[in-house]
Design a protein that fits this description.
This protein is globular. It contains 6 helices and 7 strands; from the N terminus they run E-E-H-E-H-H-E-H-E-E-H-E-H. The chain is 34% helix and 17% strand. It has one domain: Alpha/Beta hydrolase fold, catalytic domain (Rossmann fold, 3-Layer(aba) Sandwich), CATH 3.40.50.1820. By secondary structure, it is an alpha/beta fold.
Length: 209
């Protein structure tokens, strides 16, 4: 098990477990902003998949490896946190996708994804949505309107489970960052994402997680 990064209250009913995206660590600027905001409301646990932890320790870059290994590692993290019915799991991009693939299986209370990679860059025909059509776990996907891995107009045509809410951040890219010409700022979008994620956690908690 790689080291965990814990923030927020230690005595709450819920814990949010967040994994990083494919290319940046658990303490990237994006992850720090989201975790700090959420930690004002709920406990947050961040972790790194083994390939990213090796990169941190050795400085040598390496790919994520097989989805099977990533899924197995995320399952181990969930097991380490106790009762899964008191967990909301998720993460940024790849980390959120991996969480979405085991959310139902692990019996968690909710799923929170920050920029779901609905398809690889430049390959909209290669959808990663099959399991999202039947997902039963209450889920929130926070997506930039012009995300190159799933734009608003593309996602509108996908078949997604009614348990999934997709909330759109104005003019955001895959990291929710808008263009200057949009009249919005990156901080505004990240703060919106935090507020919506916190409200989602409150609803899960209120439903008796």
């Amino acid at each position: 098990m790689t080291p965990l990064l814990r923030t927020g209250p230690a005595d709450g009913l819920l814990t949010v477990v967040l994994a990083h995206g494919a290319g940046a660590p658990m303490d990237s600027g994006f992850m720090n902003h989201i975790a700090a905001g959420l930690a004002e409301h709920v406990a947050v646990v961040r972790f790194e998949f083994p390939y990213m932890h090796r990169r941190r320790v050795t400085g040598k870059k390496g790919g994520p490896g097989s989805a099977t290994r990533l899924l197995g590692f995320y399952r181990d993290v969930i097991k380490s946190q106790g009762d899964p019915s008191r967990l909301i799991i998720g993460g940024k991009s790849m980390g959120g996708r991996i969480a979405s693939m085991i959310a139902d299986e692990c019996g968690v209370a909710g799923l929170l994804v920050l920029g779901y990679p609905f398809h690889p860059p430049g390959k909209p025909e290669r959808l990663r949505t099959e399991h999202l059509a039947t997902l039963t776990t209450p889920s929130l996907i926070l997506q930039g309107e012009r995300d190159a891995l799933g734009r608003r107009e593309e996602v509108a045509g996908y078949t997604l489970s009614p348990s999934i809410t997709v909330s759109w951040l104005p003019d955001g890219d895959h990291s929710l960052k808008p263009r200057k010409s949009s009249g919005h700022t990156e901080k505004e979008n990240l703060d919106r994402a935090v507020a919506q994620a916190a409200a989602f956690c409150s609803r899960i908690e209120g439903a008796g997680c």
